Amino acid sequence: MTPLSGTQYTLEAGDYRADIASVGASLRTLTFRGRDLVVPFQADEVRPGSRGVLLAPWPNRVVDGKYSFDGVDYVLPLTEPARQQALHGFVMWQEFTPVAQSQTEVTLATVIEPRREYPWRIFLETTFSLTAEGLTQSVRASNLSASAAPFGTGPHPYLVGGTSPLDEWTLELPASDVIEVTPDRLSPVALHAAADLDAERFDWREQRVLGEVKIDHAYTGLTRDADGMATVRVTDASGSGVAMTWDARCPWVQIHTADLPNGRQPNRVGLAVEPMTCAPDAFNDANYPFDTGLQVLQPGASLDAGWTITAI
């Protein structure tokens, strides 16, 4: 029988190994010399939450599940009922089918079919490529509809800094600005300089220990290297850990310390690092005085994005 997380695809290159599950095009495991770089889950279990999935046609939240586009109002299913939000798009529980496969690479595809709350057909293709330097995931979304479509995407891995608890890991996040959110529903309020909002909680441009801080916020104002790449690093006391790198096609990144309400377990098991092509609630772009990065795909047009995870 097919495992509960879908068809499995195993990639191996150098000291790396990755397992991809077809439901949600999920990164189920990624190891380096047997060390976990992402929080794994079992092949024959229902995937815990959003662990390792591809997010589309929007990442993060659409507030109240409501948005307007081209003069038409839409209401999305509230897939985060406790907060009354529409969370992470449609494809996280959708089956992806194989397009190409080798020992080091697999390409999976699916179609977002039109529906009342999102009346566009989007062809979505993602490739996982493993080399001796790490794992790269690339995504291409193509609008197969006759009208323009709002779109956003990103991944949802939980990075693992080491075998010690998350509180002992160090974080380096080269981002100057953060979105303030409401404490109850995590709805966007305003964009601030991280150092001005609460430097101890939100400013991680200099690497330091996470401690007991709780974060579930989107950042922008990313500092990039000469090649235009931004890199987040998570390490343990020994200096080993994991890095995630992406280019300017993802101007935003969500950081989440994986806190569960009411002390539920497993709590703070990894650090979610989610490069995004747009901000939370970008479908309501007109509500915000900053550039949310919302992409509007014209008929026949495509959007490309990608990111790489490597061991430190």
Description:
The protein has 312 residues and is mainly β. Helices cover 3% and strands 44% of the residues. The chain has one helix and 27 strands. The chain has one helix at residues 194-202, and strands at 8-13, 16-21, 26-32, 35-36, 54-55, 61-63, 66-69, 72-75, 85-87, 97-101, 105-112, 122-131, 134-143, 149-151, 154-155, 158-159, 170-172, 175-181, 188-193, 208-209, 216-222, 230-235, 241-246, 252-256, 271-276, 295-297, 302-311. The strands form seven sheets. Strands 10-11-12-13-27-23-22-17-20 form a nine-stranded antiparallel sheet, with no helix packed on it. Strand 3 and strand 4 form a beta hairpin.
What descriptive keywords fit this protein?
312 residues, mainly beta, six-stranded antiparallel β-sheet, 1 helix, 3% helix, 44% strand, globular
**How would you spell out the order of helices and strands?**
EEEEEEEEEEEEEEEEEEEHEEEEEEEE
- Give the CA-based shape: globular
Q: What's the Cα radius of gyration?
A: 18 Å
Overall strand count: 27
**Cα distance spanning the termini:** 37 Å
Task: Let me know the average pLDDT.
Answer: 97
Biggest pleated sheet: 9 strands, antiparallel
State which percent range the strand residues make up: 35-45%
| Multimeric state | single chain
- Order of strands side by side in the largest beta sheet? 10-11-12-13-27-23-22-17-20
Class derived from helix and strand content: mainly beta
Low-pLDDT parts are none
Number of helices: 1
Give the helix level as a range of percent.
Answer: under 10%
